[in-house]
Amino acid sequence: SPTTNPTDTPIPQPPPSGSLIQNGGFEQGADPWQESSANGYEIVDSTNPHSGQYSAYLCGYSSCDDSISQDITVPSGSGTITVSYWWYGYTTRTAHSCRDALTVALLDSNGSVIGKLQHSCNTDAKNSWQQVSFDVTSKLSNYAGQTVTLLFNGRTASSSSVTSVFFVDDVAVSG
Fold first, then answer.
1. Is 34-174 in CATH node 2.60.120.260?
2. Distance of CA 24 to the CA centre of its chain
């Protein structure tokens, strides 16, 4: 009897789902995150994790400019892309003005801001973990198949005695 040979016709695959971020809980250390600290500090730290043993520790010193970022490839397709994470803000400042801040943004390959997701000041510090989630589908609609950067940046003003600390943990980007 004749045999049939399978064809080599590719079957279309759905867009990937699940997290587009690697090591979102920082449990494997910093890799593949990129760390940057004005004073040369390690960002991934065990001081105050939301879950597991590690989180990103931004600032806690005067004139801080600490960042942790990761490149992600924007999936093709029409699915929803969501960025979610937990953050914690603590401050010793009593001023009612924004002197220190955590900023979370998506950057294009040139480092230009595609969209700012969060800008929380020392006045927003609750001294507790808060979960946030953002639908970034429209912000990333022109970047399908391209690499963008998810950036967490902490900055504090110059001060000899007061400052703020920001922690980030359990980062996920689904799409």
1. yes
2. 8
